What does this fold into?
Amino acid sequence: MTSTHAQDPRNIGQNSADAVLTAKAAKVLRLFISSRTLGDKEIAVLSRTASLLGRIVQGSLFVENRKVAGFAPSHVGLAEYERALTAAEKLDLLTRDNSVTDLFVTYQSTLVAVAGRSEVPQPKLTELKTFLSALSRYFSADLLRPASEVRTPRRTIEN
It folds into this structure.
């Protein structure tokens, strides 16, 4: 399967925006972990990142043919879902007890909680920061990947 997603002019801007957004969110979380303070700009970054994770969840639901309260399956988030799945796999975040969708729902809920100034345990924040950093690198890498390059094989999603 050849991926031309990043080279499609309609998608280059979105990949770039997603790469910057996830990198900013990882930085916000890193600073929040040490200072436990958030300003309005930081909250806005986390809220936009939660929206991105919402699209990833929608793509995941579409692939897994599942339903989760508060989300509707959609093909719109498939490109973002693919990058998020790759990041989760590379970081070894997937377990037999936790579906991909459940992982992404948890990350989206964590971002909403932090943006809402709710208390979140530091290990959850650290894992999310690491995931967002990796996700940013995958979005960035897609910007540099030639259209003719074949993406790495993907494992199948099992129910």
Notes: The radius of gyration is 15 Å. The chain is about 65% helix and 0% strand. Residues 9-144 form one domain.
